[in-house]
């Protein structure tokens, strides 16, 4: 389980996240929703050890990030499409990460095939489209075969075929017992695949509920989300 309890982050003396408490169980696909600037990316980066918390705790099967002997085999992260040096090839980038993380380099070919980049693996990243860079970021997250996966807006830049591919991949990963936390603005994809949704607004959790419970009596997911983001009381919403 990924367990987040009482997490707060302050930047320049200002609270960006305040008392965030939630979790992601094994086999669960959880989407993190919220308007721009509500703290979604900060939360994901804090979970991944990029930003230090001011208070609270984050546990991966009972261990803090600093206690993980090989973090890349416990948590796989894709926090943006600019993670690879533009002059490197996808194969070189992933091989370097594998060696740095204590991951067998044979895994590189496996993830390149899994994300559909095998045929362009030796092209420089600078020549990749946005969708191809998204696939490379997802390959990076999958490299260590981690049980916890953190993805920030992985749908952006994907074409229709790519979106359908990613939809199936995420569901397969969850069904295989992995725990996924994904920030997204694409409510249609959330409605199709989410097990649970967590809504952030102004650094606070305003909703945390299974998808069907979250939608409740609202007309659709969009209406439920807007109510939750506004802090209105409805199924699964904490006012």
Provide an overview of this structure.
The radius of gyration is 18 Å and the shape is globular. The model is unreliable at 233-239 (pLDDT under 50). Strand 6 (148-152), helix 5 and strand 7 (179-183) form a beta-alpha-beta unit. It contains eight helices and nine strands. The protein has 239 residues and is of the alpha/beta class. Helix 2 (90-101) crosses helix 3 (106-114) and helix 3 packs across helix 4. It has helices spanning 40-47, 90-101, 106-114, 130-142, 160-175, 187-193, 211-215, 221-229, and strands spanning 2-11, 14-24, 29-33, 55-60, 75-78, 148-152, 179-183, 196-201, 204-210. The strands form two sheets. Strands 5-6-7-3-8-9 form a six-stranded mixed sheet, sandwiched between helices. The two termini are 26 Å apart. 33% of the residues lie in helices and 25% in strands. The protein has one domain (2-229): 3-Layer(aba) Sandwich (Rossmann fold), CATH 3.40.50.300.
DSSP strand tally: 9
Low-pLDDT sequence parts: 233-239
End-to-end C-alpha gap? 26 Å
Strand content: 15-25%
Q: Mean pLDDT score, rounded?
A: 93
CATH architecture: 3-Layer(aba) Sandwich
CATH topology: Rossmann fold
| Largest sheet properties | 6 strands, mixed
Radius of gyration: 18 Å
Order of secondary-structure elements: EEEHEEHHHEHEHEEHH
Keywords: ATP-binding, Nucleotide-binding, Transport
Family: Belongs to the ABC transporter superfamily.
Protein name: ATP-binding cassette domain-containing protein
Organism: Gordonia amicalis
Present the secondary structure layout.
Layout: E1 2-11, E2 14-24, E3 29-33, H1 40-47, E4 55-60, E5 75-78, H2 90-101, H3 106-114, H4 130-142, E6 148-152, H5 160-175, E7 179-183, H6 187-193, E8 196-201, E9 204-210, H7 211-215, H8 221-229
Parallel strand pairs: 3-7, 3-8, 5-6, 6-7
Antiparallel strand pairs: 1-2, 1-4, 8-9
